[in-house]
Fold each of these.
Amino acid sequence: MTVTATDAVVAAAETAVADQEPARLARCRGPVLHPRPTGRDQYTISEVAEHTGLSAHTLRWYERIGLMPHVDRTHTGQRRFSNRDLDWLDLVTKLRLTGMPVADMVRYAELVREGEHTFAEREELLTAHRADVRERIAELQDTLRVLDYKIDAYADARRASEGV
Amino acid sequence: MTVTATDAVVAAAETAVADQEPARLARCRGPVLHPRPTGRDQYTISEVAEHTGLSAHTLRWYERIGLMPHVDRTHTGQRRFSNRDLDWLDLVTKLRLTGMPVADMVRYAELVREGEHTFAEREELLTAHRADVRERIAELQDTLRVLDYKIDAYADARRASEGV
DNA sequence: CGCTTGCTTGGAGTGCACTCCAAGTCTCTA
DNA sequence: TAGAGACTTGGAGTGCACTCCAAGCAAGCG
């Protein structure tokens, strides 16, 4: 497989998001547990597992079902993940945490592999998922109100019985 | 099974949340699709399925695994759900939508059956779940930012190619 | 009375997303 | 160079939350 100009453009687009993300979101999180070592572009499967929190099993399974772009191999066939692979896994992990079905992520991965002419469909897919995510946030906040109410009720009951 | 004073108190506490909820949350939703008919306290399983969006299979299964309080039966053994059952199902549905495992909901149902002395543990259980929900909202909002960024990028690409 | 439709049960089946296994190969450290 | 430990594969197994099935009972209608 050769790397075409189109591939490069797509890859750049794909990578840009992950690249700019840590900076934007840094304030939301504590220190990253397993910072990516700088100046390296080769990771064993267990290093990637450690870094992403996915199991090595899951990483192999992702590759089997077409959710990973082709991962480099050593001359003896062992996987060597690149920083770009890690970027991709960061995105996949985010989408997974927001409940996107694996089948949809595989579809998205296919579109990415197919090149630039799938931009429109990718945008559609992500837009649909964004609507989902927004709905789910609303549901969660809905439930949060109920939880607050009930927890308050139980706390009141506790205080009343302790205070007597 | 007799209804004790404790049961009544607990039931009132359980019901209160569901009762006050539609009013509070009405602004967030369109018209309710299947409003509960007034002046009725007897529903067949298919009516409840229609109302809650759960399947009749699922309702029977909820009862089997102890997620429903005992449901009344006709003299021939058919289920007749009460308004209180519907209130309970509303809560269960909310908790389920926010990803509470069924096992945890069953545990909560048990605590409710056991009476007032389990208030503290119920509060704990709900508080733990609330923390979960908050974390998940944060995750979703995190991903929302990434989605916005990527969708924008694709939209820009589309506009650029159309505008040339 | 027969027909249709709805309800009952325990148990089996489904789909998703992993998760593990067995048997063999490779890499690293002493 | 020997041994520990990490890596490989296809396929089987797991856990969750339903989802359906078969066989039978019950209610309402023409």
Amino acid sequence: MTKTPSTKEKLLQAARALFWTRGYSNVSVRDITGAAGVDAALVSRYFGGKQGLFEATLADIPAWDVLACDRENLLEKAVESFTQPYNPQTDLVNPFTLLLANVLDPVMGDKIRAFVQQGIATPLAEKLGGVRAEEKAAMLLAVLFGFALIRKNFQVKGLTDTSLDDLRAQMMILGQTAVQSAP
Amino acid sequence: MTKTPSTKEKLLQAARALFWTRGYSNVSVRDITGAAGVDAALVSRYFGGKQGLFEATLADIPAWDVLACDRENLLEKAVESFTQPYNPQTDLVNPFTLLLANVLDPVMGDKIRAFVQQGIATPLAEKLGGVRAEEKAAMLLAVLFGFALIRKNFQVKGLTDTSLDDLRAQMMILGQTAVQSAP
DNA sequence: AAGAGGCGTCAACACTTGTTGACAACTACT
DNA sequence: AGTAGTTGTCAACAAGTGTTGACGCCTCTT
């Protein structure tokens, strides 16, 4: 049986779920502690404040496992990780929405941008290699993030109701196009 | 000479500039009135409150002029409108960032989604026509919005420092791929 | 038994938020 | 001149924000 999580873990879990969907400024400390079922004062006690709690959730983001696989099936893995079924429960491990939800925040924006550049874009460019690696990596990220944005956040009709297999096939074509350098 | 704008116009202008960059919840009424140089009480007087002011800026969005041109040069116009130089002053007429900045807002999200679907995605699908028009339109939007997201918001290196001509060429290829239906 | 340290609860704080109503200044009309 | 309507100013409000310090409870050690 799973042992009951500690208060610190309960706070982290609730914070991640809320920051993930609504962004730093749209979530209050009392929202988090209310969802976690603990007192509001414990956020300052355990994490030094709301900002510290947010940074703890940020540090908690798993390394994007796509970066760990070979160059050949990198594209396939990337597409797969961005076309998972729409399930808030399991999607928590996907850092995408947390990044999107907070990049505009006046205090957290810089942190988010630095994370995307150093933790995602630069390693991806190194993995891709070749000429104009940075540009190709950025284009691929644009395709992936744009897809997730239109599907999950804007919920535009053509992407929310199509089968995952069809979507993945389309995304593979787009991804391959993105990583091919113009002559 | 340009006649001095009325208080209402000054408020709308400042509100658009701030909501555009930081999102609804990250902007306070006093931020706006401070930038406009007017009293904070006038927001409630003229627009019925902060929410009314936001909706006024939303109603102020010009119809996406790309939707007005022919089917042939639609793609070129769309790419062009999304690859303008990074200029906050002129970019105010581009609805993109206002939409992105507020789609996650707990109170404004629904309004934004409805606007994107009815004001952009559906007309674009009708313009594209053919089989799977909705899907193709959504994919094209994903490419366009994803590009703007990675470039302007995340400021990833490969897209911020490349020449506009190169970027446009790349985007044209991606856009054409997006609107081609899989067999 | 007595003390210490970790853990949670409660009330309160200083501050910002959006909004309101009273009041003054000005213009336009009779 | 007098009056009505508009427009801007000021102070204040209630609600919500993040944070702090005092207090009580439980467990372990001596």
